[in-house]
Specification:
Chain lengths: ~575, ~190
């Protein structure tokens, strides 16, 4: 890796490390049980008005009530999104006169934004009206992130409360997430992005005569406001087809680092919030260490291989060395202003967090560099994962880890003083199995079906990776793509849509059930036989469990895809 | 479930107004007031006519101009069809394209048949709208442009330096030459 590459990595780590702990404490003070909420005088009255308007009582809910509210909210959201796309042709906010979106694509897109996936089977600039992008897609960018946050908070409460029947109130938690965390941060970062050249207007596409006299149409749109929440909410749906590679979404090296910071700041802050709510910082740090170890290894691998370039091009007389006068490396599908290493770093970050924004074409990465985003998603989005989803995913893995440790010493496992018993473990296993079944099942059907194979751009092992990547990305709610796959067919719109819904709600329901089961339990004081979970040893075990569980599940398909491709390269 | 539908509908309405209308409109107001040029697309004018955006590359082909990177956006630099080639690293189409582009680049710029070509000159970008080329790429094109325009190569090199941007804050991203800016500077030389 070049010196410039190390600097990009270091600056990002320092920025996130300097800010996330404070945000974590802020979040804990919003949701914690014996805390005074910050800025209550500003936000309190607005919240009260919203609760009155929406007829919401603030009674605490059991896990069932909490989950039902969450599902009701999601159902209404998905219907609204679907209707909005179908009807956009006759609605205002459509200066370019785009027609309604076809039914299968509308279903796919509605499922995609509802589940915080933001898989896009369409090209934004030529499919979605400004109104759809603003009041449909951008709104889901806020609320789907806030929904993920509520589940994480509910699971933390399940772990830290003593013999309580309830987990909090979904509507209150949802509103606080949007109002007190996402909106203020998104607003400030949208202005920062706009100052750098991210567009924010309501102009019709503007046709200009270029210097050489040809015509070029320059698109407009409310992009900055969507870009900031797209990264902050780990959503990833681009306003334009090229996503964060588009100069109007990501105009320079600073915005590139700023967008990676936006992606990471909430997921990294949540373990700190967890530590504070558990009244034991080390518990949060252990979880964070496992998350960031996976992230860092991925970053180094992706940056190295993208910086090293494509060996096939060397024999063609192409200079891929990294020097002071050229970015070098594997530049197919990458922007000059970012260079190959910062693109590898972005790919690792966006896939480690379930974001799915891309600043380069993952499909054109080197086999080893492209395996990094794929494997990061396969980890189940825990490195450090999406807003909320990353923390509750990692906490589920933590339960599995203490269970395995308990088996080794023959004692009933505990986590934060809560006994982990058969009913919780069954739910943990369900949580872990739903996604691989979906990914491998749909991939297996797709690689033998003509109607699916015709969507592939690349053949051989790379084609298998393209296909696997699509279902992995959808079912884990990431949303990035090996974009050579043409997903806008009835088969992919439907199966990817189902994968996204399964990957979201079939994980949220077991996670909430675990929270509901744990919150009722007493806390047992630690004894000599308790496996301490706030230690480097536990962080190591947790990392190992994530890697082994994923390795056993997906190794065969990774072996046939990227590994074969890397080994046969140049032959 | 049924008792939850009414609050759910009302909450969707409230968040739609708040995050879907108020938020983007306020951002637009502030961005337009404080950073109007950028928020409108960083448009560039020449002789009073808008000729493009400094952030969006253009598909220059004439010998009098510096050429941008190959583009997979539509027929090339189509700003309504942003995107990459998405070809894998071992793909035969990609390798054939690169070989052809390298040969064309050497011929056009009077380089030896075995000369090394900068990678950005023969690969398509992620957006297809990359406004930049590497400094190396610009230096290799400079003699051609200087010859066609009857300018001294040193003069063209100076313009290349003038059109070089980044890295941001001296450390973030890469140093790169803005092709549209450079070509407009050339045209101003008269």
């Amino acid at each position: 890796m070049s010196g410039q590459g190390w600097i990009q990595l270091l600056v990002l780590v320092v920025l996130v490390g300097a800010t996330a702990p404070f945000l974590g404490i802020y979040i804990a003070r919003i949701y914690g049980d014996d805390e005074t909420r910050p800025l209550e005088r500003v936000f309190g009255p607005i919240e009260n008005a919203i609760f009155r308007l929406c007829r919401i009582g603030r009674r605490e809910q059991r896990w069932t009530g909490y989950t039902i509210s969450l599902l009701a909210f999601s159902l209404v959201s998905v219907l609204f999104l679907y209707a909005l796309q179908r009807l956009q042709g006759g609605l205002p906010g459509n200066p370019n006169g785009l027609p309604g979106v076809p039914a299968p694509l509308s279903f796919n897109t509605a499922a995609s934004f509802l589940t915080n996936t933001n898989w896009q089977n369409y090209s934004g600039e030529s499919t979605m009206s400004f109104l759809t992008q603003m009041v449909g897609l951008a709104v889901q960018n806020f609320v789907s992130a806030a929904v993920g946050l509520t589940v994480a908070i509910a699971l933390i409460r399940g772990l830290v409360r003593r013999t309580s029947p309830t987990l909090g109130n979904f509507w209150v938690d949802l509103t606080r997430g949007v109002l007190r965390i996402l909106l203020p941060l998104a607003f400030l970062s949208a202005i920062v992005l706009a100052s750098q050249g991210v567009v924010q207007n309501f102009h019709q596409d503007r046709s200009v005569a270029t210097v050489e006299g040809t015509e070029q149409v320059i698109p407009g749109g409310p992009v900055a406001s969507q870009e900031s929440i797209k990264e902050l909410g780990t959503n990833g749906g681009g306003f334009y087809n090229a996503n964060s590679a588009h100069p109007f979404e990501n105009p320079n090296g600073f915005t590139n680092t700023f967008e990676m910071w936006l992606i990471l700041v909430i997921p990294v802050s949540l373990p700190f919030a967890f530590g504070r709510m558990a009244k034991d910082r080390r518990q949060g740090l252990a979880v964070l260490a496992a998350m960031m170890a996976l992230w860092l290894v991925g970053a180094l691998v992706a940056m190295h291989f993208e910086g090293a370039g494509n060996p096939n091009l060397t024999s063609l007389g192409v200079d891929q060395s990294i020097t002071s006068t050229q970015p070098g490396g594997n530049m197919e599908g990458k922007e000059t202003r970012f260079g190959p290493e910062a693109s590898g770093l972005f790919a690792n970050t966006t896939t480690g967090t379930s974001t799915g924004a891309v600043n380069a074409a993952h499909d054109s990465f080197t086999p080893a560099g492209g395996a990094v985003p794929l494997v990061q998603i396969m980890f189940g989005e825990v490195s450090p994962g999406g807003v909320g989803a990353g923390l509750y995913g990692m906490l589920i893995f933590a339960l599995l880890s203490v269970f395995i440790a308990g088996l080794m010493v023959g004692r009933t496992p505990e986590y934060l003083g809560k006994k982990i018993q058969a009913s919780e473990m069954k739910l943990v296993v369900l949580y872990i199995l739903f996604v691989p079944v979906c990914v491998l099942g749909f991939t297996a059907v797709s690689i033998v079906a003509d109607w699916a194979l015709s969507s592939l751009l690349n053949t051989g092992p790379h084609g298998l990776t393209e296909m696997t990547y699509a279902f992995t990305s959808a079912a884990n709610n990431n949303g990035s793509a090996f974009a050579g796959l043409s997903g806008n067919t009835d088969w992919f719109n439907t199966t990817l849509g189902i994968s996204m819904l399964v990957g979201r709600f079939f994980l949220i329901i077991p996670a909430m059930a675990i929270a509901g089961s744990l919150v009722r339990k007493q806390k047992v004081p630690p004894s000599a036989g308790t496996f301490p979970t706030g230690t480097p040893l536990f962080a190591t075990l947790l990392t190992g469990v994530v890697v082994i569980v994923v390795g056993l599940t997906y190794f065969p398909v990774v072996a046939l895809g990227p590994i074969v491709e890397q080994l046969t390269q140049g032959s | 479930m049924r008792r939850q539908i009414l609050p759910a509908v009302l909450m969707v309405v409230v968040f739609t107004v708040l995050c879907g209308l108020v938020y983007p409109l306020v951002v637009t107001g502030v961005a337009q007031a404080a950073f109007g040029h950028q928020a409108d697309g960083s448009l560039v004018s020449s002789n009073g006519q808008v000729v493009g955006s400094e952030l969006i590359g253009q598909g220059f082909t004439g010998d009098r101009y510096f050429w941008p990177r190959p583009s997979a956006a539509g027929d090339g630099y189509d700003a309504l069809a942003s995107g990459a080639s998405n070809l894998g690293p071992n793909d035969q189409t990609l390798l054939a394209d690169v070989e052809q582009r390298a040969a064309d680049y050497r011929t056009a710029n009077g380089l030896a048949a075995d000369a090394q070509v900068p990678v950005d000159a023969v690969t398509a970008s992620g957006s297809g709208l990359d406004p930049h080329i590497s400094v190396e790429n610009a230096r290799l094109q400079a003699p051609r442009v200087a010859r066609v325009r009857g300018l001294a190569v040193e003069r063209v090199h100076a313009l290349v330096d003038q059109a070089t941007e980044g890295p941001s804050l001296g450390i973030l991203g890469e140093k790169a030459v803005n092709v549209l800016r450079l070509n407009l500077l050339l045209d101003q030389q008269g």
